[in-house]
Design brief:
Radius of gyration: 31 Å
Helix content: 25-40%
Number of strands: 21
Strand content: 25-35%
Number of helices: 18
Distance between the termini: 72 Å
Largest sheet: 10 strands, antiparallel
């Protein structure tokens, strides 16, 4: 079946295996075991178009004729079972991993149900039978029960419990979750504001995040994200999801009145992030979260969670989490919302740019240090319980990799040009796999999708990054130092290139990116392209890759131009010239 990439398997179980039956212990155990085998084969065979289902027939046989009346045995003809089996074996039947009872011309499908249950212990405290007794009614209450269809859905409850217990946001009081048995109208939850909190971070936190999403010293332009002593040290824009993530992971959602759903079934479906101002290198941001809307998707519901992060009274970033809750839909609510930031299809043409990046085997272990402690990403036992062969990478880690690729290729790692990002999470990634980000430029919007190079699976889809146009960066003035003197020099170089550009390009053949500083920050970026065409000078980072990156203060730049300062001394004493300073000598010679 694997070789031909097609197969259909039918297991024969029994009602004795499903429900048990007096005097049939060994038979019942074997028949239920077949169901477990069938479910596993359905999962493993799915990728090879091999489906496996189980039937529990009620049919006349040599065994049943000794216990059932003769007329009943005659009525339970095997022919009344074969039609179902034939359909399940047909190539057009997509049913997989299901259980059916069948007999006498009747067919029914079975499924599992799980109550919302109750947490009966606190952190660092023993679990007691008294706590179980006090919560027994809730443990056995099937109102608002979920219907898990996979081990991931089922064991997600355990993972959620560990989060709640560890954060001490649980109560063993049987009345503390009374809202969980309310009818799911959800109207009262919309507009609910979660308790605000302060998220503090240091330079170490931003560097740790950058490493967690793949920033590396093998890319010289990543130094600004990894070295606090860099003149243009910056925080990656997607660090905003770290600032806001406590609103989603802190357990507060489970306490919202009018939202009686099982948060063990929550999947992170989509993410939006908008940056209003680059993050300070360290600081404290106040976060305010609100339930913006709740949507009914039939098979589940979507919670739209908005989080606003402020420095003082100034809005720094806005995050929107779209959380899909499996099995809680069908309550008659609306399917769409004007408040939801929509994912957008990618263009139907080959990508304009592609970047591949290896994740390390330690990628999830490193990323979790930014605050997402879910054991699914580090503990093999938890990963196995959730149905994965090993721990998976955080979706927001892959999100960070992809955003970094866009920023690197289309904005020269200039964080001031990053405006917003939207992404949909499609499939998980295993640490060690290679990410391939495919990008399409349409104006100031960069559409992208991310795949696993080894399998071709799309893991982030319908995504985009909005950039601020390069002209939005001021190169002539700086709030700390007023007009930059170096601007006049770059404009003069551009004027001279019109006459001698071809000759200079032929001799130099290099692209120079200048970072002009004022005070302790980068005040302007200029690129002198002496490699392409007749050369050109333009404001902003290099459109492709630069051969040389020169970091120099506005004052030292003018001293060098006027011949008052030896450029080589500036290079050696201040580490102001990065990469090949020989190219810099060529530039000095020509101008």
């Amino acid at each position: 079946m694997k070789k031909q990439n097609y197969g259909r398997i039918i297991m024969t179980s029994s009602s004795a295996g499903i429900y048990g039956n007096f005097g049939q212990a060994n038979y019942s155990a074997a028949k239920l075991g077949l169901l477990g085998l069938s479910n596993t084969l359905a999962i493993e065979g799915r990728k090879n178009n091999t489906h496996c289902n189980t039937v529990a027939p009620n049919a006349g046989s040599r065994m049943t004729e000794t216990v059932l009346p003769e007329d009943v045995v005659r009525a339970l003809k095997p022919e009344y079972v074969t039609a179902l089996v034939l359909w399940l074996c047909h190539e057009s039947c997509e049913e997989n991993g299901s259980l059916f009872e069948v007999g006498a011309g009747w067919i029914g499908k079975l499924r599992w149900e799980q109550t919302l249950g109750a947490i009966v212990r606190r952190k660092n405290e023993a679990e007691t039978p008294e706590a179980v007794k006090a919560n027994w009614k809730k443990i056995c209450d099937f109102d608002n029960a979920s219907k898990p269809q996979s081990i991931q859905e089922s064991t997600g409850t355990i993972i959620e419990v560990l989060h709640k217990v560890d954060s001490e946001e649980v109560s063993t009081n049987p009345t503390s979750h009374a809202a969980s048995t309310a009818s799911p109208g959800f109207a009262s939850a919309i507009g609910y504001k979660l308790p605000s909190y302060v998220s503090a971070y240091t330079e170490l936190d931003t560097i740790m995040y950058a490493l967690g999403v793949g920033a590396s010293m093998k890319h010289p332009k990543d130094l600004k994200f990894l070295y606090e002593g860099s003149s243009d040290f910056s925080c990656l824009p997607t660090f905003g999801v770290i600032i806001a993530q406590k609103s989603m992971t802190g357990g507060g959602l489970a306490e919202i009145p009018g939202l009686p759903i099982n948060f063990a079934k929550v999947l992170h479906g989509e993410q939006y992030l908008q940056i209003y101002k680059p993050f300070p290198r360290a600081g404290k941001l106040k976060c305010e979260a609100v339930i913006a809307d709740i949507l009914d998707k039939g098979s589940g519901l979507v919670i739209v969670l908005d989080v606003y992060s402020y420095s003082g009274k100034e809005l720094i970033c806005y995050s929107q989490y779209s959380l899909f809750v499996v099995g809680s839909g069908g309550f008659g609510g609306k399917r769409t919302s004007e408040k939801l930031k929509m994912a957008i299809d990618i263009p139907s043409r080959p990508p304009d740019a592609v970047i591949t990046d290896n994740t390390s085997l330690n990628q999830a272990a490193l990323y979790r240090l930014s605050g997402d402690w879910n054991p699914l990403h580090i503990d093999p036992n938890f990963a196995s319980l959730a149905g994965f062969e090993k721990p998976i990478l955080h979706g927001l880690c892959t999100f960070g990799f992809s955003a970094r690729h866009v920023l690197q290729h289309f904005a020269g790692n200039d964080v001031s040009r990053f405006k917003a990002i939207k992404a949909r999470f499609a499939k998980p990634v295993y640490p060690g796999q290679t990410l391939r980000t495919e990008m399409w430029k349409e104006g100031n919007r960069i559409h992208f999708q991310t795949k696993i190079l080894e399998t071709g699976d799309i893991v982030i889809s319908n995504a985009y990054v909005d950039l601020v146009p390069p002209c939005g960066i001021s190169a002539k003035t700086h709030p700390e130092g007023g007009e930059l003197q170096s601007t006049l020099v770059f404009e003069e170089i551009n004027r001279r290139l019109k006459d001698i550009g071809h000759e200079v390009v032929k001799r130099v053949n290099a692209v120079f990116e200048w970072h002009v500083t004022k005070g302790r920050s980068t005040a302007a970026k200029w690129t002198i392209d002496l490699k392409n065409g007749s050369g050109k000078v333009y404001q902003g980072p290099a459109e492709g890759s630069a051969d040389t990156t020169i970091i120099i203060s506005d004052e030292d730049f003018m001293e060098v131009v006027l011949g008052k300062l030896d450029p080589q001394k500036v290079m050696v004493s201040n580490f102001s010239l990065v990469h090949s300073f020989l190219f810099g000598r060529k530039l000095t010679f020509k101008f």
